[in-house]
Amino acid sequence: MTRKEAEKTAAPFIQPDASLDELRAAAEHCTGCDLYKNATQTVFGEGPDDAPVMLVGEQPGDAEDRAGHPFVGPAGRLLDKALAEAGIDRSQVYVTNAVKHFKWSVVRGHKRLHQTPKIIEVRACAPWLRAEIERVRPRVVILLGATAAKSVLGPSFRVTLHRGEPVASDLAERVVATVHPSSLLRTPDPDARARAFDEFVDDLRKAAAQLPPRPRRPA
Predict the structure, then answer these.
(1) Which ranges in the chain belong to alpha helices (H)?
(2) Is residue 70 over pLDDT 80?
(3) Which strand ranges, in their side-by-side order, compose the sheet holding 166-167?
(4) Of 168, 126, 132, nearest to 151 (Cα)?
(5) Which residues contact 12 (CB under 8 A, 6 or more apart)?
(6) Coil vs helix vs strand at 26
(7) Within 13 Å of residue 140, how many CA atoms lie on the same side as its CB?
(8) Which residue, 116, 143, 139, 118, is CA-closest to 129?
């Protein structure tokens, strides 16, 4: 890694007083790391600007890169099913990724294959995620997978050790990490996949239970 690569960041593209819509527009022109060169487009977060729950994944997949929207591929559809079973209203959730451009390596047929972002790429993109959290101010942040968890909670965090546990953070009242729904799709055995899905739903349900009660409105 060169010094120039280590110093690259999305920070210069972010205006301190920018709204979510303004951030989204600015992100379209981000060259904070080199991933933009091979991606179709930036895939920014979506959802209510006052969502009580924010979901953070790793990066856009092939379907998301083509559509320009987060979690619209197979993993996204599985996530929608899991949210419904966990009793979480998908329309009230803000969804985003730690990295805003799709990183892929080789092509099999017509599909580009996902490649895990490097640490320097996650760090370069971190200002976008922090800006989203600061604008939305979610009460609970759910981190999906190791890349998202480490981007927020640090490189030493292990999802396998602290899955489903509320973690102290200055970013939200509660932060909870679990697996990424794409990991369920890679589970070949149907019975094991069903168990993994149930465990994932349970993690989401526990995370939603961390929402502190809202103050009662005056009568």
Answers:
(1) 3-7, 20-27, 62-67, 74-86, 119-136, 146-153, 159-162, 181-185, 190-209
(2) yes
(3) 93-97, 53-57, 140-144, 174-178, 166-167
(4) 126
(5) 32
(6) helix
(7) 24
(8) 143
Residues 163-191: tens digit of each pLDDT: 999 998 888 989 999 999 999 999 999 99
Exposed, middle or buried by CB within 10 Å (0-12, 13-18, 19+), for 118? middle
pLDDT tens, position by position, 140-164:
999 999 999 999 999 999 999 999 9
Would you put residue 68 in left (φ > 0), alpha (ψ -120 to 50) or beta?
left
> Can you tell me which residue has the tokens 């995370």?
207
CB atoms within 10 A of CB 44: 23
- pLDDT-derived band of residue 4, with 50, 70 and 90 as boundaries? low
Amino acid at the residue 187 = T
CB 104 within 8 A of CB 113: yes
CA 31 centroid distance within chain: 20
Give me the percent of the chain exceeding a pLDDT of 70: 93
